[in-house]
Design a protein that fits this description.
The complex is a heterodimer of chains A (about 180) and B (about 140). By secondary structure, chain A is an all-alpha fold. Chain A has 9 helices and no strands. Chain B has helices at about 20-30, 45-70, 80-90, 95-100, 105-115, 120-125, 130-135. Classes of the chains: A mainly alpha (about 180), B mainly alpha (about 140). The interface of A and B includes residues 18 and 143 of A.
Chain lengths: ~180, ~140
């Protein structure tokens, strides 16, 4: 924790800011990319959201109180940015977020940045039918392999509630794949 | 129909892939958007406030310089002419006040420095209308 406080100070100090931010990018750009990609599904949209996430992180570092870990704070920003992005995209296209996601999933096979097999496509289709919170929990646990405790701090919920959400999500996915 | 079970299949990924060199380019792209400390541009309003502060400081210093000069000057001794002028125009002090301040030594000193001729004294007494009172004093 002390190490993280020192790192935050380096990020805030104009003299060490540049080097510290490079370190921050190096550490978090890959996991955050995959986290965002799992929500917005498309590479170009992920690129936009990831940039916005780092800009927001940089702009709000001075307000970061250190009550949570830098890791969970950044994931929270990335999650909110992703969900806001989908909502705005749906609004712009005069449709719902579910429809936007369903359309992307239907076109996954033609996406040059998707390399999944039949099972992976079915899995994505099944996930897209889940409520937003269950989708998030399943993706973070199954694909990103985050611990329940980490997901709990990111989504600001209890571990018990997360376990229940994950369990429900798995059952629904299994039922969908079985019948399709 | 065989029931699908997530635990029975090998752990699968999301299937999403990342373009080659994406993260290298991404780092450069993001870093280029942040201000470089060495080339940081100071906003005009900040420059303006600094300028105003400098002007205010100059004005304050300018106002205080004459006061400091006055205070730092040593008190000059009054010359005799200034003293005489002051006494002449000082209405609260009259001739009698001055005379009352003179003692025997002062009169002797005055007698030594002021040489009065008898003719002048006589002339003065002849034109002075209050001769009797002066003689009686």
């Amino acid at each position: 924790m002390q190490e993280e406080k020192e790192f935050i100070q380096e990020l805030l100090d104009p003299k060490t800011q540049n080097e510290a931010f490079q370190k921050l990018l190096h550490t978090y750009q890959r996991p955050l990319y995959h986290h965002i990609r799992n929500i917005v599904l498309n590479h170009d949209d992920t690129d936009d959201v990831l940039q916005n996430t780092f800009i927001k992180v940089f702009q709000n570092l001075k307000n970061f109180k250190g009550e949570s870990k830098l890791f969970s704070w950044m994931y929270r920003i990335a999650t909110n940015e992703s969900l806001t992005f989908i909502k705005q995209k749906a609004k712009k296209n005069n449709t719902s977020t579910e429809e936007i996601n369903a359309k992307i999933i239907d076109n996954l096979q033609s996406d040059v940045f998707f390399d999944g097999n039949e099972i992976q496509i079915k899995l994505q289709k099944a996930i897209a039918l889940l409520p937003t919170k269950q989708q998030l929990v399943f993706k973070m646990k199954y694909f990103e392999e985050l611990k329940y405790e980490e997901i709990a701090t990111i989504l600001d919920t209890s571990v018990g509630a997360l376990k229940a959400s994950y369990h429900h999500a798995v059952k629904k996915i299994e039922a969908y794949v079985t019948s399709n | 129909m065989k029931k699908f079970n997530l635990e029975n299949i090998p752990k699968t990924t999301s299937g999403f892939i990342v373009p080659d060199n994406y993260f290298e380019d991404f780092s450069k792209k993001v870093l280029s958007q942040f201000p470089d400390e060495t080339n940081r541009v100071i906003p005009l309003y900040k420059q303006k406030s600094k300028l105003l502060m400098a002007v205010a400081a100059i004005l304050v210093i300018g106002l205080f310089i004459p006061i400091f000069n006055q205070l730092s000057k040593p008190a000059e001794e009054l010359d005799l002419t200034t003293l005489e002028n002051h006494l002449s125009y000082q209405t609260n002090i009259n001739q009698y006040d001055l005379i009352s301040e003179l003692d025997e030594d002062d009169l002797n000193k005055m007698g030594a420095t002021i040489q009065l001729k008898d003719e002048i004294i006589e002339e003065h007494l002849s034109i002075n209308s209050d001769l009797e009172r002066l003689l009686s004093e």
